[in-house]
Design goal:
The chain is of the alpha/beta class and about 325 residues long. The chain has two domains: about 190 residues, inorganic pyrophosphatase (n-terminal core), CATH 3.90.1640.10; about 120 residues, Diaminopimelate Epimerase, Chain A, domain 1, CATH 3.10.310.30. The chain has eleven helices and eleven strands. Strands 6-7-8-9-11-10 form a six-stranded mixed β-sheet. It starts with a helix and ends with a helix. It binds adenosine monophosphate (AMP). Adenosine monophosphate binds next to strand 10 and strand 11.
């Protein structure tokens, strides 16, 4: 079945001369890496096609490669490929873009169909795993740079192969990438894991201020003043939420960061027990069963969300 869908997507790619590759807003390493690796794979195999990666540029991820800044008036009759994003409302940079058809490659659970062809597997560790699988199955050639990006996306989204979506298939794909493209881990890991000292200190602040309920919910509320004090941006907590896994007393944990510019609370939620994406969906959010995000407008909404998560932890404990 996966082979069929990959072949069908391959045919569409062959058909279109202009291909636009997009991913979700507020990108993480898997989103950026899958987008750039996919764009570069198409460029490598079809040098005469116009292929662009769109969306906001995030300077801390520049080691993956550059995002394009195409003139949207010059894009016509395009195939839009969306990666690592389940629905169109979360795709970065498609306002004003003209396209004929959409293809989706994603690992988020989603009940609605948004594209004419969808290679979706919500048991896959990452969008990068699916792009690598797509490339191997269709025989598209890659190079070391593309393989390195895919490797880093898989490593990052699986939290270095710790999360439950890491399967034998993940290791099989990773070993093929390493073997075929002679990947050298150390410089790659430097890109992904090197941190400035102020971020380490901010990490210490989060650990110090983690509130814990008796049901096993941990949370921190992060104000703009704290972000300023530690000289970090409001995307930094998202990069740190996975570091708080495996705390003995904690079943679910949540960072609430106030985004002053957009006057909204950005929420990162993780769990190693209760399923959280259904709760996140009630608060303008969604995501995976054990890794979700949400957006709240008021403190009151945050309090309701915390209550719902605390109850989910309690119910989970009682069911064990
Ligand atoms: P994050 O905590 O931002 O790393 O997000 C965890 C997961 O939830 C990712 O798969 C995101 O794509 C997804 N996610 C985050 N925020 C939202 C949202 N507002 N709506 C739907 N999905 C989200």
């Amino acid at each position: 079945m996966a082979l069929d869908i990959c072949k069908q997507i391959y045919k569409k790619i062959k058909k279109y001369n202009t291909i636009v590759v997009a991913r979700h807003v507020g990108p993480d390493p898997d989103a950026i890496a899958s987008q750039i690796a996919f764009r570069d794979t198409i460029k490598l195999n079809f040098p005469n096609k116009k292929v662009v990666a769109i969306g906001s540029y995030v300077s801390k991820f520049k080691y993956f490669g550059l995002i394009d800044k195409p003139n949207y008036n010059e894009i016509m009759e395009a195939l839009l490929v969306i990666l690592d994003v389940p629905t169109l409302d979360r795709v970065d940079g498609i306002e004003g873009l003209q396209y004929n058809e959409i293809i989706k490659i994603d690992h988020h659970p989603c009940d609605t169909k948004v594209a004419s062809l969808e290679f979706v597997d919500d048991t896959a560790s990452s969008a990068c795993q699916l792009v690598a699988e797509f490339n191997f199955r269709t025989g598209l050639k890659m190079n070391q740079n593309i393989a390195s990006n895919l490797f880093l996306g898989i490593v990052s989204d699986s939290d270095r192969f710790l999360l439950s979506y890491t399967t034998a298939k993940t290791f099989h794909i990773v070993s093929k990438l390493i073997d075929k493209y002679h990947l050298n881990f150390e410089p790659l890991y430097n890109n992904l894991y090197e941190r400035p000292i102020n971020e380490i200190r901010f990490h210490g602040y989060l650990a110090e201020h983690l509130n814990l309920t008796e049901n096993g919910l941990a949370y921190v509320k992060i104000t703009p003043e704290i972000l300023k004090e530690y000289d970090v941006d409001n995307g930094t907590p998202s990069n740190m939420i996975n570091d708080f896994n495996y705390i003995k007393e904690v079943l679910s944990w949540i960072f609430v960061t106030y985004d002053e510019k957009n006057a909204i609370y950005k929420v990162n939620i993780r769990s190693r027990g209760p399923i959280i994406n259904e709760i996140a969906a009630r608060y303008n959010g969604g995501g995976h069963k054990f890794a979700s995000g949400a957006r709240c407008k008021t403190e009151e909404e945050i309090d309701f969300l915390l209550k719902d998560l605390d109850k989910a932890c309690k119910d989970y404990k009682e069911s064990q």
